[in-house]
Design brief:
It is a single chain. The chain has helices spanning 5-12, 16-24, 41-50, 74-81, 92-102, 111-124, 181-194, 198-205, 210-227, and strands at residues 2-3, 31-33, 36-40, 83-87, 128-130, 133-134, 150-160, 170-177. Helix 5 (92-102) runs antiparallel to helix 6 and helix 8 (198-205) runs antiparallel to helix 9 (210-227). The protein has 2 domains: 2-51, Multidrug-efflux Transporter Regulator, Chain: A, Domain 2 (Orthogonal Bundle); 74-227, Mannitol-specific EII, Chain A, CATH 3.40.930.10. It has 9 helices and 8 strands. Helices cover 44% and strands 17% of the residues. The protein is of the alpha/beta class. A 5-stranded mixed sheet has the order 4-7-8-6-5. A 3-stranded antiparallel sheet has the order 1-3-2. The radius of gyration is 18 Å and the shape is globular. The longest helix is centred in the C-terminal third of the chain and has 18 residues, at 210-227.
């Protein structure tokens, strides 16, 4: 669904005049279609999160999409995607190529198309979230038609410059592939919560074992379940 100016003003709890001002300043991702402005739900969520702006939970609801019967489990998503060590690459492009090659994807998945989507996303702005972590993902989360969200954690052989806001080189990549926009947003939201957990963060910084990371994610999943 393409959001309208009114939709975005409601989701961000600001006036429509503010939205138009941000559009004029090219400060918010927007598209002009037939003399009207439209917004991509995932882009608005990412933009607001990067700006540390509160967003209405309504952003996770999208008409026409089948509701998830079960909450997103970070641990289960990572079990599906796997943990990969010593992933090689001398720069961002080379690393993304290596990551795409190790992903656990359906046989019919077009890896070359996925890679181009990742490059296009990075061209809009780095997916480095700070402290040596990046979350590359494509703008269209339905591109691979996977049945549910998949998270792959790749530890790099050599830290690389990813253009992260804090300037730190990236050594760990969480690759996210989603089946729906709603699942995409929910998984990103849960990952953002997980990265605040110091125990999990230390495991990632030290390239901990697959078993230890999954155990910590199960604990974080429990905290998220209790919070809801």
């Amino acid at each position: 669904m393409q959001l309208t100016v009114r939709d975005v003003s409601d989701l961000l709890n600001v006036s429509e005049r503010t939205i138009y001002r941000w559009i004029k300043q090219e400060a918010i991702p927007a598209y002009r279609i037939h003399d009207q402005y439209r917004f991509n739900r995932a882009e608005i969520w990412e933009w607001a999160t990067a700006k540390r702006m509160p967003v209405s939970p309504e952003i996770f609801k999208e008409s026409g999409e089948k509701e998830d019967l079960l909450p997103v489990s970070l641990a289960e998503s990572l079990r599906s995607g796997g943990v990969h060590y010593r992933v090689e690459g001398q720069d961002k492009e080379a690393v993304l190529r290596s990551v795409v090659q190790v992903l656990h994807l359906p046989p019919e998945a077009d890896r070359a198309f996925l890679l181009q989507g990742l490059f296009a996303r990075e061209a809009l702005g780095s997916t480095g979230v700070g402290e040596g972590i990046a979350i590359p993902h494509v703008r269209n989360p339905i591109v691979l038609q996977v049945p549910r969200s998949i998270i792959s954690l790749c530890f790099l052989e050599k830290p690389i410059d990813f253009g992260a806001l804090d300037g730190k080189p990236v050594h760990a990549i969480f690759m996210l592939i989603s089946a729906t926009v709603r699942g995409h947003l929910r998984t990103l939201s849960r990952l953002a919560f997980a990265f605040k957990d110091e125990s999990l963060k230390q495991l990632i910084l030290n390239h901990g074992s697959r078993e230890a990371i999954l155990q910590e994610l199960e604990r974080v999943d429990g905290q998220l379940k209790d919070a809801h």
